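Q: Hi! First time doing this. I have a protein sequence and I read that you can turn it into a structure. Is that right? Here it is:
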Amino acid sequence: MSITPHDERFMAAAIRLSRWHLGRTATNPSVGCLIVRDGVIVGRAVTALGGRPHAETQALAEAGALARGATAYVTLEPCSHHGKTPPCSEALIAYGVARVVISVADPDPRVSGRGIAMLREAGIEVDAGVLEAEGRHSLAAYLTRQTKNRPCVTLKLAVSADGMIGRAGEGQVAITGPEARAQVQALRAETDAILVGIGTAITDDPLLTVRTPGLESQSPIRIVLDPSLALPLTSKLVATARQVPVIVVASEEVWPLSADAESLPPSALPDYRGRATGLDPSFGPPAGGEIGKRRDPNSPVSDDDGFGLRQDVGQGANPDPISPLVGEMPGRAEGGAASADLDSRRAALEAAGVEVLYCNPYHPEVLLPALATRGISSLLVEGGAKTARLFLKAGLVDRIQLYQAPVVIGEGGIESPLDATDIPSGFAHTGTLMFGDDRLDEYERGL
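A: Yes, that's right. Below is the predicted 3D structure, encoded as structure tokens:
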């Protein structure tokens, strides 16, 4: 059966439905499913909060007997393996669905093609690839983690008319208006984690939560690149760490020498599994590379070798190591820190509910796979010109959201790491939106 405009219309509705729970389904993708009979939707569902039950089983249950002979529209290939729940393909067969229309095939090796094959073997007609580009966009976080062993990274920048993202020494400076800021809150709500550098965390003292009424519970995990454990105990991040998780990424150079094997930094563990909230134990460590090797602390390090760790994590990754950012080397923060002082800082942060992750902050090609093992599929890089340049130089940004505002910063401004005239190669402009007087241009790199 050929694809019809009705198929595209129902699939578009399923894709819209799938976005309802983005960032809220743990390690499972947020999938939309419609059961349609004689042109009428008789069942609909999105993957439940926490990741289970899956969309198909909920939609089938809502449709009941009306599912027999109906068409199911699902944004991702139905699963075919037994996990914590039976395969969705089996449920579609059991309910007597006559046809299944799929947007995106599942790259998970436990599923890839098997779900489709199972349905066809049962005599069910299957059409795949309907509105695939739109489906891949909605599933980008899941697909990136499955195919590249890392989260999908979005870089968000708000740039003034004179090319600045802030003013030195003045903390947070409002560049965009209320409409654009509300849109950023919505982006945070559908993202697993948000990341800033220690400079931004100290200077701006941001909260990094979702402040839209009714969406506060969807605040992402907050991550700070903090090589020397310089995050102030009086900061808003530390003060709220027990309400919304905070992870500080410390340099392995400050990893406590007295620690046992259970607390070794990620790059020292060949069989590393993250231990943070949201871990999917079935999701293995990054494949290949050198994430299982630990550098000898007594070995020489070349000027351009950062901390000596390297792993290729997919298309677009910079083959050159990333050097530490100037002014943020271990031991420099707050005038240097002796071992006892570091131990004291570590203990105080952990007592406040902050997790310390020892994984070189300036090698995102190592950090990102470590975050993926912790169930983080989407990451929003939101703070600091240095941090933005770090991820751009590494070639590990998948999406750019560039807000341009008519505000002029003037003298003392902090220059933006990029603007609309120097978007890196490999990115396609995917759209422009206006929020009040502010313009949002979106760019994406293909999966």
